[in-house]
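task queued by scheduler; priority normal; single chain, no ligands, no partner chains; default sampling; output format set to structure tokens
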Amino acid sequence: MHEHNHDCECGCGCGCGHEHDEEQMMVTLCLDDGTELECIALSIFPVDDLRYIALLPTVEPGQEEGDIYLYRFHELENGELDLQNIESDEEYERVADAFDELLNEEEFDEMFDEEDE
């Protein structure tokens, strides 16, 4: 079970068109060994008519940054996220490429924002 901790007043799980830039959606992953991992939702994005989420574990002082986790998901009626593992290598490659492209677009946009200042 994956817990969805989100203080957004729209209650939609993001991707709704409301402004969420100033807040960070937090997701608690329950790992196979029973440990919980707090993560920041970096992005929610579509690939092939499905929705995916990129999660970055929060880093404690003195720890190295972790890997980014990619999951297929949908939001349940109660607001919790149902995260699903990406099972095939082909699907993972499509999702990873889409996320990389998203990051490249954001970095490109940030370059122009800095020039405008």
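post-processing summary
- Residues 3-116 form one domain.
- Residues 35 and 109 are 37 Å apart (CA to CA).
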